[in-house]
User: Which sequence fits this backbone?
């Protein structure tokens, strides 16, 4: 074996294993992060499934024949249905029947359904019966179109029971209160998924990268032994903190602008690459953010970055060097990653209240929530999120200014053992 | 002569450890005063309290009549502190570093320029001031930092181990700077060192510190005579009972 290899190897291993920050980052975080994520996703999928099964299906019977009664009875065996008659889809919306019946979709049995079924049963298999399904587009998320899938499953079962492909489905989507005929919610969801993955991934990368940089700002002063000198010159300590934060604000501003340009370009690419046969035009459907929406999303992103950077600066004050600072900031990553990864798959509005509240409380999930909300025109949620992050940031900055005003900026350390001994040793 | 620094019954407690245990001494204006003692005696803690970096547990410190706890920002206007392990920003040139530091004390651009030029002369680094400080040797960096500490002509310069770890020539240069500059401009200096010979050469008066207390204080020559010793090292050994 290479001479000296073993000695160096053992020493390196000892140093790494004995550094609690590294040990926690490498072992505890992955061991805790992924199970939590799994639990959140599993719970959410289960809840979505349960909600879909419990959901009320509004049936608009415009046929009135025997076969429509059979079809309704078959559906009623699988899920709770409420039947209304002789209404156009537009009238269903106008009368607000979906909301009144706590439903997100309705199925229309059009006139001629029974006649077509009878024709098919009598041997003319070219004749098919059709039902029209209308689903409300609520936002995107892997589990958000489970409701629509349940309807498809029931119709398939009915076909297996009666005759293959006898009943066919046409899908339409209700977007922002308007019926978009022929737009399949599943197709729409999969298209929107592109942005629901892109935003969280970009936010994760931007936050972790910029926080790593910000974390070095105070730690570098300590490591290069410049902090003590700086703290004794005639300058307000709050000015030192603000100076450091201001430079990171510039970084955050540039990063936000770059991300908005990239995001706009990405959405543009998606819309130009949608096959024309899908007849989905996101701009026409109102599923592209407006200028105001872009502006709000940009502000949300900027505030979140600022908040993350301020927290990174304050955390770095607790480290004695850059390595320690970056390790400390690593403890924030699970708080960024869990909601970001979960919101790739989930629509926050379908989550149980406790998880929903938790995700709203985490400032770093705000741009992800905002990216979905601006598409749906829900500006209230975005503005509320921006105000929340702003308050959070002010609190963090106040704490940072208090820390800078005292000797804790020099003596504060997250010690795992031998608390004061180390501090005194370093003081002398 | 009025007092530049008054330290009275200074105590600093770090958890269970008493780093300073009632230190008392005064420094006259225009004097070079040395705190000497072994590692861990409490020298740096004393300096850090005087320069407003940390707070005392009890006791009082006044710098030109200003209280270091209640008038910290006023104290910072009249002092300049050179920590033992100070560094410079590695990606700034020596000149840029001096300019950065000068801007905190000096108002106008012409004052800043004059201050930097003075620092350049003190440091003796010449053209090397244009280079980034990360390219400097330890000795060059220390010369830059000593120049930085003196360039603003502070009323009180607090220098912690000003020549520690330097080779003979760099250490000689640094001591010469302090001695000459201080006398020329009437700056009061408080320095700490565990190098007794350095202190003997530089200081008008010294205080020997051990275990957080001043064990003896006076002019080097008088102390040597009093304890019948050849140098301050011997004085210290006798005072603490090593010899």
Assistant:
């Amino acid at each position: 074996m290479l001479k000296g290899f073993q000695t160096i190897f053992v020493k390196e291993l000892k140093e790494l294993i004995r550094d609690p920050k590294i040990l926690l980052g490498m072992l505890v975080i992955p061991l805790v992060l992924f199970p939590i994520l799994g639990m959140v996703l599993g719970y959410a999928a289960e809840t979505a499934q349960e909600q879909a099964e419990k959901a009320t299906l509004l049936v608009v019977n415009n046929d009135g024949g025997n076969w429509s009664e059979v079809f309704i009875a078959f559906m009623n065996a699988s899920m709770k249905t409420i039947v209304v008659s002789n209404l156009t889809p537009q009238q269903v919306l106008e009368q607000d029947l979906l909301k009144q019946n706590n439903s997100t979709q309705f199925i229309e049995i059009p006139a001629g359904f029974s006649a077509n079924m009878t024709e098919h049963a009598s041997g003319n298999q070219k004749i098919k019966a059709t039902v029209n399904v209308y689903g409300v587009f609520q936002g995107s998320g892997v589990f958000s179109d489970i409701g629509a899938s349940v309807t498809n499953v029931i119709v398939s079962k009915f076909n297996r029971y009666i005759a293959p492909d006898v009943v066919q489905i046409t899908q339409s989507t209700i977007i922002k209160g308007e019926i978009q005929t022929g737009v399949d919610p599943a197709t729409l969801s999969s298209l929107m998924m592109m942005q629901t993955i892109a935003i969280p991934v970009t936010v994760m990368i931007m936050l972790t990268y910029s926080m790593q940089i910000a974390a070095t700002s105070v730690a570098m002063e300590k490591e290069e032994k410049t902090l003590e000198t700086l703290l004794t010159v005639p300058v307000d300590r709050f000015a030192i903190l603000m100076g450091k934060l201001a430079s990171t604000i510039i970084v955050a501003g540039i990063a936000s602008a770059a991300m908005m340009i990239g995001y706009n370009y990405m959405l543009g690419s998606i819309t130009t690459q949608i096959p024309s046969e899908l007849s989905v035009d996101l701009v026409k459907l109102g599923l592209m953010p407006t200028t105001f929406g872009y502006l709000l999303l940009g502000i949300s992103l900027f505030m979140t970055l600022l908040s993350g950077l301020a927290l990174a600066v304050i955390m770095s004050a607790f480290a004695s060097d850059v390595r320690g600072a970056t390790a400390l900031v690593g403890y924030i990553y699970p708080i960024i990653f869990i909601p970001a990864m979960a919101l790739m798959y989930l629509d926050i509005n379908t989550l149980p209240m406790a998880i929903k509240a938790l995700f709203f409380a985490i400032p770093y999930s705000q741009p992800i929530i905002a990216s979905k909300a601006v598409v749906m025109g829900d500006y209230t949620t975005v503005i509320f999120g921006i105000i929340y992050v702003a308050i959070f940031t002010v609190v963090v900055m106040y704490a940072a200014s208090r820390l800078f005003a005292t000797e804790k900026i020099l003596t504060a350390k997250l010690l795992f053992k031998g608390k004061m001994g180390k501090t005194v040793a370093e003081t002398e | 002569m009025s007092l530049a620094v008054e330290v009275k019954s200074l105590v600093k407690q770090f958890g269970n450890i008493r780093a300073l245990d009632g230190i008392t001494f005064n420094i006259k204006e225009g004097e070079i005063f040395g705190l000497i003692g072994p590692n861990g005696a409490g020298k740096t803690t004393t300096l850090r309290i005087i320069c407003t970096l940390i707070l005392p547990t009890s006791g009082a410190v006044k710098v030109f009549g200003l209280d270091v706890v209640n008038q910290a920002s006023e104290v910072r206007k009249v002092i300049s502190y050179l920590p033992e392990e100070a560094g410079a920003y590695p990606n700034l040139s020596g000149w840029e570093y001096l300019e950065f530091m000068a801007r905190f004390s000096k108002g106008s651009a012409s004052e800043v320029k004059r201050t930097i030029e003075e620092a350049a002369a003190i440091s003796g680094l010449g053209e090397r001031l244009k280079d980034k400080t990360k390219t400097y040797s330890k000795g060059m960096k220390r010369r830059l930092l000593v120049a930085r500490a003196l360039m603003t002509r502070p009323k009180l310069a607090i220098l912690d181990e000003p020549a520690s770890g330097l080779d003979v020539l760099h250490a000689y240069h640094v001591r010469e700077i302090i001695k000459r500059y201080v006398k020329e401009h009437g700056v009061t200096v408080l320095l700490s060192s565990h190098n007794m010979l350095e202190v003997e050469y530089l200081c008008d008066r010294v205080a020997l510190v051990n275990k957080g207390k001043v064990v003896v204080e006076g002019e080097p020559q008088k102390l040597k005579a009093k304890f019948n010793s050849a140098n301050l090292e011997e004085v210290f050994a006798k005072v603490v009972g090593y010899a």
Notes: Residues 293 and 374 of chain A are 5 Å apart (CA to CA). Confidence is low (pLDDT under 50) at residues 414-428 of chain A. Chain A touches chain B through 22 residues (CB under 8 Å). Residues 12-47+192-427 of chain A form one domain.
